[in-house]
Amino acid sequence: MPFMAFALAGTHPRPDGRVRQAGIDDFDIVSELVASSFGLTQEIGDVAAGILKLGDAAGKIWLLIDDARAVSTVLTSIIDDAVCVWCMGTPARFARRGHGRALLADVLRRGKLEGASIGLLGATPAGKPLYDATGWTTLEGWRLFLSSERCQWATAGADL
Q: What are residue 142's phi and psi, to 5 degrees?
């Protein structure tokens, strides 16, 4: 898995009015988006959405809303001067419309406003082209040991 970084200095993206922070009432929406984005069971999606029950101290989950429907989600957390990006997902039925790019730009802007100077993430095979296209740099490759054949890395045929 590529571990990637993005310098926030010099970036000035405009706010995207389609992006909002998810709340506890969005639990089912976040769960479904995560499960369908990564080919996981709803129970695993529920685990990811469970972050909402912990409050902002555990991180923030964001949604991009298009035509009154949540189409993309991501979890961010600020640690020291880094905005860490986790579980960014756009289900295939909403893909290739710029939703992921727009959501990523907006949450990085928000991270910068909170004092972050760098973005950090681990990329899936599905997400890496977006990160490459938006200027992220691969710092190193992490070897993952996975047991689930339903995992995106395994189904993408990535060299683990």
A: -105, 135
